[in-house]
Design a protein that fits this description.
This protein has 216 residues and is an all-alpha fold. The chain is built from six helices and no strands. Helix content is 89%, strand content 0%. Helix 1 runs antiparallel to helix 2, helix 1 runs antiparallel to helix 4 and helix 4 packs antiparallel against helix 5.
């Protein structure tokens, strides 16, 4: 019985890693299309979102099977419960990557000086998503805490981009609509960072049994 449970937990880890990889690919697509507004890559980002949604349902079914049939206790229960929470955040990451692609489809390719700060922000979010999923699979508390701290980097990215876009609007009001679109893209990246941070917090819960307070 325990051997089967361990096999199912390993399958859960694999499924989560695959879902995390899809999230990373979707984010990577978004910063590539900032430069070229490639229609095929925009379509691929939407396909990635659909695959992420499908993977969420598969993992949820696996988690429910583990909870109902295997009746895990203590840390095993926390691990499965954390996975259920994590897939919700990963699904939202897929949604937000698709939202970014939709905006780029409307505004077109961006000049490098405009795209680069957003691309940097995207790369930071990829690092957080990858780190949070790896922390879960490896039960690495230090890595989960590192991801949570890295959320400050994403927040600062957003503050800097917002300040620059405000300056753009003040100096060139005719670019106001574009600036608002770019601000929305930055906001989506910030939200992706928040979701990656949430995942890392659930990893911490799965290891320690302690959940962060809302006001921390």
């Amino acid at each position: 019985m325990r051997n089967h449970f361990e096999e199912q937990l390993e399958k859960l880890n694999v499924e989560l890693m695959e879902m995390g990889a899809l999230c990373e690919q979707a984010i990577e697509n978004t910063y590539k299309i900032l430069d070229n507004a490639d229609i095929e890559m925009i379509k691929d980002t939407r396909k990635k979102e659909a695959l992420i949604d499908h993977k969420e349902r598969e993992i949820e079914n696996l988690c429910f099977e583990l909870l109902l049939r295997q009746q895990p206790v203590a840390r095993d229960l926390r691990q499965v419960s954390a996975a259920l929470k994590m897939v919700t955040d990963m699904e939202r990451i897929g949604d937000q990557a698709s939202d970014i692609a939709e905006i780029v489809e409307t505004v077109g390719a961006l000049e490098n000086s405009v795209a680069q700060p957003l691309e940097d922000m995207a790369n930071h979010t990829i690092k957080m998503v990858k780190g949070s999923v790896n922390a879960y699979v490896k039960a690495d508390l230090d890595l989960s805490k590192e991801v949570q701290k890295y959320d400050d980097v994403i927040d600062q990215n957003f503050v800097d981009i917002r300040k620059n876009l405000i300056d753009v609007i003040v100096k060139n009001p005719e670019n106001g609509e574009l600036a608002m679109d770019l601000l929305m893209i930055a906001k989506y990246y910030e939200r992706i960072g928040d979701h990656a941070c949430n995942i890392a917090e659930w990893v911490e819960f799965s290891i320690t049994g302690q959940q962060k307070e809302e006001d921390e």
